[in-house]
Structure formats: structure tokens, C-alpha cells
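Figure S4 source data
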Amino acid sequence: MHKWLLPEAIDDVLPSEAAQIEVLRRALLDHFAAQDYRLVSPPLIEHLDSLLTGSGRDLDLQTFKVVDPMSGRLVGVRADITPQVARIDSHLLNEPGPTRLCYAGSVLRAVASGPGATREVMQIGAELFGVAGIDGDREVVALAVSSLRAAGLRGLHLDLGHVGIYRALESGAGLSGSGETADLFDALRFKDRPAVVALTERLPRVWRDALVALPTLYGPVAEVLPAAREALPDTPAIANALATLDALAAGAAPLVDALHVDLADLRGYHYHNGAIFSVFTAGEANAVGNGGRYDGIGKAFGRSRPATGFTLDLRQLADVLGRSS
């Protein structure tokens, strides 16, 4: 008898789980449709230069690449659907005013996100194009939270961040593009304050002190944002970012059971350029939803627009719901 083995971190989905995933997929797509988000279905593969154009370049290491025998060109198996939806908005729909799109489909990643994680992620999400600033951010955060509630999750905890704050500090300190940036970025992301102190010791004091403070600026909104205004330089970029977080927190607070801010959350730094967020549920260490602003992703396809959105993992949601029932 053959013992059939699947590739590492690739799994079959058996009937009970498959049925639950399909119920979730349908419920979430119906919820998106009720909020005027229209369904699109991008292809599983694209020419590599299209798939990785613009902000999609950050997905390069996660993308499986093969030669198309029909054309001889390199094609990639998508590792994320969001850049494809941005291409559809910019290149195919090209609509005036706001465009609301949603999607559901599998993505394949070259490396699993962690121990026990699958490399084939069943992704579902929504993207809002053409709405700049806090109005778009509020809408997408509210949709992410209401979607998770529609899926059956309770005890939701929202974490907010803003990559513009680190960008402003990096630029002010003259670190943009320098070799030290990668080490400092990692130290901040892992909240390794001693490493941040060591890596910033030669910087002018105002920027050094702000970067050293950044890993400590996380916790309840009412405590963190006032502390950030004291600890960080009063530049327009930083003031605008903190004001955005203030407004976003005020709108989101009634929607969730707990709300925190983490100014050293640099997830998606090379992709996002504004407010970002993660949603957690009680008893789970990993976020059940992630999203944020990524203005300008469509520029590579001929139309730069404000953009923000979020993604969920259907298998993860099914697993969490199964353990909480």
C-alpha cells in the first residue's frame, strides 16, 4: 500500500472542517455584500511581473515561481489576494468615487507563518478604495469587527498602530535606506529596548530618545496616546498619526471589549503606510484578523488611490470557533 504524503505544511481539509469553512465563507460574503462590497475572484496565478509589482514586491520571498509552458514566462502562485484586488480596481474597473470589493480564495506561501501553520491559507477579506483618511479607516475597522461577530466570535480585542510614526522617526534621524535600519526595525518589532538603545546611541538626542521610547508605547489608548505626545517629537507627520489613532479609537471603542495601541507594531511596514490594526479574541494568542491602510498600491497599475482593507483566515476561524463551542 502506498503511503501518500503531502508537501510539508500542506494539508487535506476533511468533511466536517470543510463544511464549517464553507458555512463561514458564505456567511462572511453575505455580510460583505450587505455593506455594498462586491465580490471579485482574481486568478490563482499571474505573470510574475504583475503579481509582484509595486507593494507586492514584499511578497517575493513567499511566492512560488514556475515557468508557464505555454508562454515560457515566469508566473507566480499568489501568496496574497490584496494586490490582485488593487490591480482590478486600478486597471480593470477604474471607477470614479469609492470602490468596495471583497474576495475569498486560497493563497499559497513558500514558508509557513509559524509552527503548525499551513502554507495554503484560505483567505477572505474586503478592500476599500478611494476613501482617504479616517473615514475609510473607521469603515474598514468596523467591517472587520462586525464580520468576526457575524462569524460567531465574541470577546473581541482590537490593537491599533500606525506605521507613519516609525517612518517619521526613521526619516528625521536620517536612517532611511541605511544599513542600520534593518537591525533597528527588528529590535523595535520585538520590543528589544536594550538593542534599540545600543543601535541609536550615535543619533541626535531627540530622535534617539523617541526611538528608545517607542517599544514602551503600548497598552490602553487612554494611557499610551498622551504618553506618546510627551515622548515623541511634535512633527506634523507624528501629530497627524496620533490624531488618526485618537479618532479611530474613539469610533472603535464601542465595538469591542478591549482596545489597545501599540506604536512599535511594524507588521506590514513595507506594505502599509498609515493606520494598521489586528483583532484578537479571548483565549487566542494569534490575531484572527489583520488590516490597515496601503495608499498608492494601484500606482504601478496606472491609478494611485487611497486604499485600506483587512483579511481573515477561514481555516483559523473555523478552528477557533470549533474550540470555543
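Figure S5 source data
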Amino acid sequence: MRSKVFISGAAGGLGKAFAVECARRGWDLFLTDLNSEQLEILAAALRRTYGIHVLYKECNLMDPDSRQELFLSITSGSYRFRGLINVAGLDVEGMFRERSRDDIRGIVRLNVEGTLEVTHSLLEIMDPMQSFWIITVSSLAAFFPIPVKATYAASKRFLLDFSLALRDEVKAQGVTVTVLCPAGLPTTSSAVEGIEAQGLMGQLTTQNIGYVARRTLDQALRGKSIVVPGFLNQVMRYAGSLVPPVVLSGLIGKRWRAARKNREDLIVVLE
């Protein structure tokens, strides 16, 4: 049995792009997401198009019991893995005091808890005959304190810092860890609305998901630690490091409040 690449959030836009890019390279896959019907369709298409072996299992990574069921399924199948791509994540936009406790818990449980447990589980069953690599999807938001997206940005900062620390811990075992920090990606209708609400800047910082998946895999296989797709996004990351965090937060907050107002106005017009 050949070792596989595990992809969480595989039914979403970026997850699908990673799955297609991995399949194009001839790698067998194990896919998971909330939507079993979409997973079945994706798996069938990948098998038919690329002739690879694709397994999948529905899982709610926010739920500890569902995660445990997934891990038991993997271990009982005696599978081994050559790579892990942590895509699954949740972004709930809005002022912190206006968000429900369920919204806040959901971000932490999926972005942090789910990613940590999947990573911990896969490291226990990586293929000893392959160089194991991990890609974790963070965000350009990880580099900034972002009002209106405070919990989300903080969760992505956690993933960035965790991944860089883990990278140092596991390098002696020949494992590499790469953090993907993209700006806007047109993966859902909600994401597209958010990009449009930011006007020209949103359009300029947005990247094609197929390009992002391909470039990130190439960089991960070369052992790159952080991938920030797009020259403008790289400039923004560097420029942000030169500004005091308190000042930066105020500037970003002003921009995001304006974008949120634009988005609300757009929804009213469409209705």
C-alpha cells in the first residue's frame, strides 16, 4: 500500500485545488471534510482523471468525538502518510462583542484544536520510508492584529507560531513544516463578497487558488518555512513589521470597518 497525502477541508475551494495538484503529481490521497457527498464526487473525479487511489471520510473537526472517530478509522486501516495539508478553517467576521459564543468557540475549535489534533495524529503514523512534510494554511492576517476579525487573526497567528516551533522540533526526523499565509482567496461566495467589499486593494491582493496550491507544494518540497503568495502581499507583510502594533491595529481597523460597511451596503442593494 502506497503512502498517502492527508488533506483536511478537502471539499472547499483551496482544499480541492490542493487535492487536484497532489493527484496531478501521482500521489494517493485521504480526504476529509464536513460534506460527504462533495467528498464522494471529488474522490471519484480524481480517481477517474488521474488513476490514483483516493480514500475519504466525513468529519466535523470541531467535534472531539468526530475527530476521534476519524483517527480510529485511519489507524484501523493501517495507512501511512507522506504528507499532511491542514486546510480546514473557519472565519466569522464581525466585532468581537457582537459575535456569539458559538462563533468564537467554533473558530478556536476548528482553527486551533482541530489542526493540532490532526497534526499530532498524522505525525504518529507518517511513512518512515518517506520524507514527511506538513503544510498548514494560516493567513496573511497572522502578521497583523485585525479588528473586526480579532479571533480569526489571533487563531491564524497561533498556527504560524506553532508551525515554526514544530518545524524546529521535528527537523531531526526529516520532517518539514511549511506555513501558507495567503491574502484573499475566492474560495466561497462569502469570500468573494469580502474581497469585493475591499475594493481595489482586495482585488490586487487576491490570488488564484490553483496557482497558490501549486506554488505552495513546490515550496514545501524545497523545505520553505513560510509562503506568502503575491509580491504585494509580501510587501505588506514586511511593511507591517515596521509599524508599532497599536498603530497598525488602528489603521487596519479603519480599513476593515469601511470594508464591512461596503459589504453591508452591497447586500442591501442586492436584496
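The domain at 4-189+206-230 is CATH 3.40.50.720 (Rossmann fold). Residues 81 and 122 are 7 Å apart (CA to CA).
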